[in-house]
Design goal:
Blueprint lengths: L2 E5 L8 H10 L4 E7 L9 H14 L4 E6 L3 H9 L5 E5 L6 H13 L3 E6 L17 E5 L13 H15 L5 E5 L7 H7 L3 E4 L1 H4 L4 H9 L1
Parallel strand pairs: 1-2, 1-8, 2-3, 3-4, 4-5, 5-6, 6-7, 7-8
Helix pairs in contact: 1-2, 5-6
The protein binds D-xylitol-5-phosphate and zinc ion.
Length: 219
């Protein structure tokens, strides 16, 4: 059975407290926090995502799954450590070399937080290989990062399959999280490819019944 991480990127500010409560009742496994710096991607979401993270920490015990789409990774790791996330994920495309990645991985772990590496649709999975032994999770982007509500890019399904095979053949204990355009209609494709955690924003938030949607997606 997969886990579900609901993205708050498409949650309106005036509906956020209701969404936090309803998604906890609906038993989402994580709240997915999409942090964008306006540089790595055009959108800027830090302020509202900090506000949402604060609310979540004050009223819920659902773990935070923080997805950093930023260039200055250390700056945003320090910001979001304040919200005691379960996991922080940063993009391999924002890293200059292995040393920098290893520093960040060690730093995040030393703060009692799991660490993930995110990879864009057009970045080859071999870019991750040397870092797989040190991380908990790979976040495979199934859309180009930057906004919610986009259609899933079909070619990323095969990428998940290949990554799953490489992780299993190497005996690494690394989870695969898929993120972007995941809906009830296509989630089986993503699960069958080997994803352990599905991120869904509009695929859940736009549903009448969150609990039903999450139960269906998790099956
Ligand atoms: C996109 C974000 C995704 C997105 C998912 O840059 O990383 O988490 O919000 O939203 P949907 O499920 O609507 O594509
Ligand atoms: Zn995301």
């Amino acid at each position: 059975m997969v886990e579900i991480s609901t993205s708050f990127l498409s949650v309106e500010k005036d509906k956020v407290m209701q969404a936090i409560y309803n998604l906890e009742v609906a038993k989402t496994d994580y709240y997915h926090i999409d942090v964008m710096d306006g540089k790595f991607v055009n959108a800027f979401t830090n302020e509202i995502m900090e506000e949402y993270s604060g609310y979540m920490k004050s009223v819920s015990t659902i773990p935070l799954d923080v997805h950093l789409m930023v260039n200055d990774i250390k700056k945003y790791v320090d910001i979001y450590l304040n919200y005691e996330p379960n996991i922080i994920t940063f993009h391999i495309e924002a890293i200059k070399n292995k040393d920098e990645a290893m520093q960040l991985i060690k730093y995040i772990k030393s703060n009692n937080c799991k660490v993930g590496l995110a990879i864009n649709p057009n970045t080859p999975i071999k870019k991750l290989y040397e870092l797989l032994p040190y991380i908990h999770l790979v976040l495979v982007m199934t859309v180009v990062p930057g906004e919610g509500g986009q259609p899933l890019i079909e070619s990323t399904i095969d990428k998940i399959k290949k990554l799953r095979a490489y992780i299993d053949d190497s005996n690494y204990d690394v989870y695969i999280e898929a993120d972007g355009g995941i809906k009830l209609e296509n989630c089986d494709l993503v699960k069958d490819a080997g994803a352990d955690i599905l991120v869904s924003g509009t695929g859940i938030i736009r549903q009448e019944n969150y609990a039903e949607a999450i139960k269906e997606m998790r099956k």
